[in-house]
């Protein structure tokens, strides 16, 4: 099976439970660690899948992070080749930009645990149909985007009209974090504590809420990941 490539922007944000699922299924994958200066491939040729992870930078900060433009180009190439693509948080914003949508700041940052409302189209979606109705997800973003032209809206939240979308048959953008486990939540809270406090959120309260909300998210992410892995073999 062709390997999956995960584009990483910070050592804190990893594939999380998706990485667990890939290892269990013996699907090969590797990281491109942009935070360590590793180069983005020029083409998606030969990839079995592409996952673009989250990070603290913003899509439009290309002057400071020139690799973001290279990632947008790689996402476009993967979409054109029919390679399965999953964009998470920053990754979903890069996918939206690759599809021509505007990306910019929201009124207030959406951090911590919050409800995601799935759409009617999500019920019939090959991946999102496994998630059931509305649920509580983990959020950490200050930017949002318009629904790209031709994309299907799958989920929204009160502060953010577009939380998830599908483009074509094999490309998904998720602004929220479906891949987190307790360890990843703790790492994000430790790394981005100042950002949370500046946004008026208490990291310790978010951590306190984690045992309440994480089990149902892990159940949903397990089903989602299982179906995403099927895309990698088609």
Topology:
Elements: E1 4-8, H1 17-24, E2 29-33, E3 49-52, H2 67-81, E4 85-88, H3 90-98, E5 103-118, H4 120-123, E6 135-145, E7 152-156, E8 164-167, E9 171-174, H5 182-191, H6 193-198, H7 203-232
Parallel strand pairs: 1-2, 1-3, 3-4, 4-9
Antiparallel strand pairs: 5-6, 5-7, 7-8, 8-9
Helix pairs in contact: 1-7, 2-3, 5-7
What do you see in this structure?
The chain is α/β, with parallel strands linked by helices and 234 residues long. It has one domain (4-232): Class I glutamine amidotransferase (GATase) domain (Rossmann fold). Helices cover 35% and strands 25% of the residues. It has seven helices and nine strands. It has helices at residues 17-24, 67-81, 90-98, 120-123, 182-191, 193-198, 203-232; strands at 4-8, 29-33, 49-52, 85-88, 103-118, 135-145, 152-156, 164-167, 171-174. Strands 2-1-3-4-9-8-7-5-6 form a nine-stranded mixed β-sheet. A hairpin with a 3-residue loop joins strand 8 (164-167) and strand 9 (171-174). The relative contact order is 0.16. The model has no long low-confidence stretch (mean pLDDT 96).
